[in-house]
What we know:
The structure holds 2 protein chains of 2 kinds. By secondary structure, chain A is mainly β. Chain A contains no helices and 11 strands. Chain A is globular, with a radius of gyration of 13 Å. In chain B, β5 and β6 form a beta hairpin. The radius of gyration of chain B is 13 Å and the shape is globular. Chain B is 0% helix and 50% strand. In chain B, the strands form 2 sheets. In chain B, strands 2, 4, 5, 6, 9, 10 and 11 form a 7-stranded mixed sheet that branches. In chain B, strands 1-3-8-7 form a 4-stranded antiparallel sheet, with no helix packed on it. The interface between A and B is medium-sized, with 22 and 20 residues.
Amino acid sequence: QVQLVESGGGVVQPGRSLRLSCATSGFTFSDYDIHWVRQTPGKGLEWVAVISYDGSNKYYADSVKGRFTISRDNSKNTLYLQMNSLRAEDTAVYYCAKQEETGPIDYWGQGTLVTVSS
Amino acid sequence: DIQMTQSPSSLSASVGDRVTITCQASQDIRNYLNWYQQKPGKAPKLLIYDASNLETGVPSRFSGSGSGTDFTFTISSLQPDDIATYYCQQYDNLPLTFGGGTKVEIK
Lengths: 118, 107
């Protein structure tokens, strides 16, 4: 069955960096675009970034552009999110999510919590 | 960015009741609208895609309708297992955007 498992979350000070990983199985990873979406109690669900199936195209939310970098390793079936210059408002549960070929996000990981605090 | 306005933000209904949630987009999104169910501590689960298509394995008491800017999500007969928060989401344009969510409780 399709599985996405995030890791790498934790507590980090403002201005520091963190790298999230999303290990996948149960589908042909290299065939699908994958997203990062985050969720905070106050702001609900917020889309963060997407990377195309082959890594050639990447798009970011304005709130993270220039600070976050999405990447993937199709040989390892793994997605990454490098987060630099972290701010308190980046505190959230981060989900990786697979996009169906026709468009909708159909599977999500269980999420990893990132807390930015001094 | 396309704004998604979802209402109500919460509702309380009895088992067996018909429940309706609405979602309005700030511009035409054709039928590129999904509905997700999220239970506490869990990831969102896709219920309806392309406004009205039931995801495989999802009970038929869930349905969706609409196109353009106005969409509706319905639970025809509320069950105890349906206690959750429901979100609409558009994918006509990046950035993907979500409604604010509707928390459904049992009366």
